[in-house]
Design goal:
The complex is a heterodimer.
Chain A lengths: L2 E10 L2 E11 L4 E5 L6 H8 L7 E6 L2 E2 L5 H7 E4 L11 H6 L14 H13 L15 H14 L4 E5 L7 H13 L3 E5 L3 H7 L2 E6 L2 E6 L1 H4 L2 H8 L2 E6 L6 E6 L5
Helix pairs in contact in A: 4-5, 5-6
Chain B lengths: L5 H24 L7 H10 L14 H36 L11 H15 L9 H20 L1 E2 L2 E2 L1 H25 L3 H12 L7 H20 L1 H9 L1 H6 L4 H23 L5 H13 L3 H25 L8 H19 L9
Antiparallel strand pairs in B: 1-2
Helix pairs in contact in B: 1-3, 1-13, 3-8, 3-9, 3-11, 3-12, 3-13, 4-5, 4-6, 4-7, 4-11, 5-6, 5-11, 8-11, 12-13, 12-14, 13-14
The chains are: A alpha/beta, B mainly alpha.
Pfam families (chain A): ABC_tran
GO molecular function, one term (chain A): ATP binding
Keywords (chain A): ATP-binding, Nucleotide-binding, Transport
């Protein structure tokens, strides 16, 4: 197991946001976390990349307890693409991506030629090399997201955590971004809003409801009309996508029932 | 919009260093006794220990005193204070991620004012002689920062919003104390002296009292420059900083310590000179972007140049009297800043 969360319980002022949640992720797996708004997806991820610390439970990354290690050690192994990425001051794309090298640098160390190559490779991989001299604030939403992914790539971490990476992107950029992430030779855990996107890309899916795991398995195991009704409160039919052979969800509006 | 390339910024650093040297020369030449640049530099260079250049004196004793004892330390102090306030401002804006912050929000200037006022009006610490004012100002600044710091801690962590609010609240209380002392005093001269002090002046510059600022500035600048990456990450926000490996609690503590030490030492020798710490970092970011690798050295140089000239103007404009330098920095700095604001697209840390 590469990344394990054991019995996490997290509460804010006695209100439990997560209740006894456990997650197991194997090497090179692409794992999705789905669930309705307020089900605790972001909170779970924040606990797993230690922005928040759970009241109970532990998180292990490569068999080491993450709360007992320094931020720097964790940052070499774990890259995070957060939900909102406001960059309030002017940085060029290249500067931002180069920040991904921070955990690998000592205090006195300057950027070496190797770092520059890694930064350039990461930008190329994420398709933002042509933007390298632009300032971040001048980019579109899709471009910004890809720049942050490029920064995560420059970290050269073996595990990447993403929180709803496709939010606010148009369909072309959604697919582009997900294809990019799937093509990486790393372990991925991502919260996803769009269930068809989750069905297309994930090896395994965890379903969260009210801070508890409601279901776990492959997209075909998990994405059933019964579960969608129970967890998301919607009527839906699920069939097989003619091309991808993955589950395809068709939602049914109340007026057609 | 593009930020300039590294090569261009290195060139800029070189040019600015040249401007600092030229400004230094000109500012030393300016005054009631005019002196040629050759003599200025011959006198300065003759003071290198052991005189390796073998310069022999062909100037008068009074020129020696004016240049070496009076004008040079004053211009050097202008460089130290200008550079120090500018980098403190740049650092505090990263710490609180807020572009309207200046280094005095930690309570340094209001704390120092209480100390200075009590020395001037009440004669506190009179046994320290000429060092009483600097000592009291530094002590006041330290106490103020400590109070702000402890108010800003929630469950052992420093909250940035609380830091800002505590800074404002503590500053208000301390200003009230200063004003109370001013109200109650019967000495007209004392009131004027306090107001002069609060607006800042470099007139007290001597070689003996610029050594501490020099050492502190060098140390603080070096540590900040080594942490340029981490300062950049702070600008991105707490979550990005942590997930990219910054120990944010420790780093914030370090920054508070460095900024309050540096501004405390500077305020103790020069009074609370305003506007530099707020405005210079913005002007610099407009020119070179937000990367602290460049923001720090460029801020230091531009801050130094700005204060050299502000002080020169302060000396000349109502000679033989001196204008408090805070009036010059505000009067000259702000219109220029407003002009740059209008001229350029620049994000002051606002969400787009």
């Amino acid at each position: 197991m590469v990344y394990v969360a054991k019995n996490l319980t997290f509460a804010v002022q006695q209100v439990k946001i997560l209740n006894n949640v456990s997650i197991h992720i194997q090497e090179r797996e692409f794992v999705g976390i789905i669930g309705p708004n307020g089900s605790g997806k972001s909170t779970l991820l924040k606990n797993m990349y230690r922005i928040l610390q759970p009241q109970e439970g532990e998180v292990f990354l490569f068999n080491e307890n993450i709360y007992k290690q320094s931020s720097k050690v964790i940052a070499k192994q774990l890259a995070v693409v957060g939900q909102e990425t406001p960059v309030l001051f002017e940085f060029t794309v290249k500067d931002l991506v180069a920040m991904g090298r921070t955990p690998h640098k000592r205090l006195m160390e300057v950027d070496t030629k190797e770092d520059l190559i890694i930064v350039e490779e990461s930008m190329k991989q994420a398709g933002v090399l042509h933007l390298s001299e632009r300032t971040f604030s001048s980019l579109s939403g899709g471009e910004k997201k890809r720049v942050i992914v490029a920064r995560a790539l420059a970290q050269q971490a073996k595990v990447m955590v993403l929180d709803e990476p496709t939010n606010h992107l148009d369909i072309q950029h959604q697919l582009q971004l997900m294809d990019l992430i799937q093509s990486l030779p790393i372990t991925v855990i991502t919260a996803l809003h769009d269930l068809n996107i989750a069905a297309t890309y994930c090896d395994k899916i965890y379903v969260l409801k009210d801070g508890e795991i409601a279901a776990y398995g492959t997209p075909f195991d998990v994405l059933t009309p019964t579960l969608l009704q129970k967890v998301f409160g919607v009527h839906a039919e699920v069939s097989v996508h003619p091309v991808t052979k993955k589950p395809q969800i068709f939602y049914i509006s109340e007026q057609f029932l | 919009m593009k930020n300039p390339t590294t090569r261009k910024i290195n060139l800029l650093l070189l040019v600015l260093t040249g401007v600092v040297l030229i400004s230094l020369t000109l500012a030393i030449m300016v005054g009631s006794v005019s002196i040629t640049p050759t003599i200025v530099w011959r006198i300065i260079l003759s003071h290198i220990p052991f005189n390796p250049l073998g310069i022999t004196s062909d100037w008068s004793r009074s020129q020696e005193i004016i240049i070496w004892q009076i004008r040079t330390p004053r211009v050097v102090l202008a460089i130290l204070v200008g550079a120090g306030l500018a980098i403190s401002g740049a650092a505090i804006q990263a710490l609180v991620r807020n572009s309207i912050a200046d280094p005095y929000i930690l309570g340094v200037s209001s704390g120092a004012s209480v100390g200075a006022t009590s020395v001037i009006l009440l004669g506190t610490f009179s046994f320290l002689g000429m060092y009483a004012l600097s000592f009291a100002a530094f002590l006041g600044a330290t106490i103020a920062v400590l109070i702000v710091f402890f108010l800003a801690r929630v469950e052992g962590r420093i909250s940035v919003v609380r830091l800002l609010l505590a800074g404002i609240a503590v500053s208000l209380v301390l200003s009230a104390m200063t004003n109370f002392m001013l109200m109650m005093t019967k000495e007209e001269g004392g009131i004027k002296a306090v107001i002069y002090w609060m607006m800042g002046s470099l007139a007290g510059a001597k070689w003996v009292n610029i050594m501490i600022p020099f050492v502190v500035l060098t140390v603080v600048y070096t540590i900040l420059r080594l942490h340029a990456r981490h300062l950049n990450l702070l600008l991105l926000g707490e979550e990005s900083a942590v997930t990219l490996g910054v120990n944010i609690e420790k780093f914030r503590l370090l920054l508070i310590l460095l900024i309050s030490l540096l501004t405390g030492v500077l305020v103790a020798v020069s009074g609370a000179i305003g506007f530099i710490g707020l405005i210079i970092p913005h002007i610099v970011r407009m020119i070179v972007g937000s990367n602290y690798k460049f923001v720090l050295p460029v801020s230091a140089l531009i801050g130094a140049i700005f204060l050299i000239w502000a002080d020169a103007v302060a000396r000349i404009v109502i000679a033989p009297e001196e204008m408090p330098i805070g009036i010059i920095t505000a009067l000259c700095g702000c219109p220029f800043f407003i002009w740059m604001l209008r001229k350029q697209m620049y994000s002051f840390g606002e969400e787009n």
